Amino acid sequence: MRYAIIADIHANLAAFTAVLEDIEKQGGVNEIWCLGDVVGYGPDPHQCLELLRRKNHICIAGNHDWAAVGKIDTAYFNPDAAAACHWTARQLIPEDIKYLESLSLILERSEFTLAHGSPREPTWEYIISTSIAKVNFNLFQSPYCMVGHSHVPLVFKEEGDTCSASRFLPNVGLELGKSRLIINPGGVGQPRDGDPRASYAIYDRENKIVRLYRVPYDIAATQDKMIQHGLPVHLVVRLGYGQ
Ligand code: ZN
Hints:
The chain is α/β, with parallel strands linked by helices. The chain has one domain (2-238): Metallo-dependent phosphatases (Purple Acid Phosphatase, chain A, domain 2). The protein is built from eight helices and twelve strands. The chain has helices at 13-25, 45-54, 63-68, 79-91, 94-101, 130-137, 219-228, 233-241; strands at residues 2-6, 31-34, 57-59, 106-109, 112-115, 144-147, 154-159, 162-167, 174-175, 181-184, 198-204, 209-215. Strands 3-2-1-11-12-9 form a six-stranded mixed beta sheet. A six-stranded mixed beta sheet has the order 4-5-6-10-7-8, with helices on one face. The radius of gyration is 17 Å and the shape is globular. The site of zinc ion has 7 residues, from loops.
């Protein structure tokens, strides 16, 4: 079985479409695991939800998904994120709202626990340091865990009482062995590691390998739509830098 792991689509249809095409180019997958934040920031929330629903997939809730349907208060968001969230809420059809409301915070699949932010705090916590990763290793049972939320491809490895972190680099297969891991496949629709290309991973269960892919997409097309819709300029500009 092969699985595509995608996180933080953020209503960026051009990036999402490019990733789906790339998945096919890499030989296809049996199922998509989506780690949340399908909507928020970007110009095509309904279109991204509709496209995702057509795929064989599982999905967990991100903070933006639940904020868009009022399950999380946007008072916790920065002003740009809150403005984009209110615009997003107005674009959703009843089927989108029902779908987002029904998402779980944590799912277990195969040897993985899936959470948007972290197993400890699924909607809010960013796993971006070894100290935070270390605490979270004690809070899931499976050998491995996948998270999104930071939009930065990272791998945390549990090593006895300590924990190490490394960048998850494209095309270098990450072999799943005895060490427990927390893996972030980066963000599809708003990368923040300085590389503006969309980021996702494929898990090949038979060969026990997770591989990261970076996919160029039409960034200007997404930016043009965001400007047309009056979405915050900072959110438009950051797509060009991957920050
Ligand atoms: Zn996000």
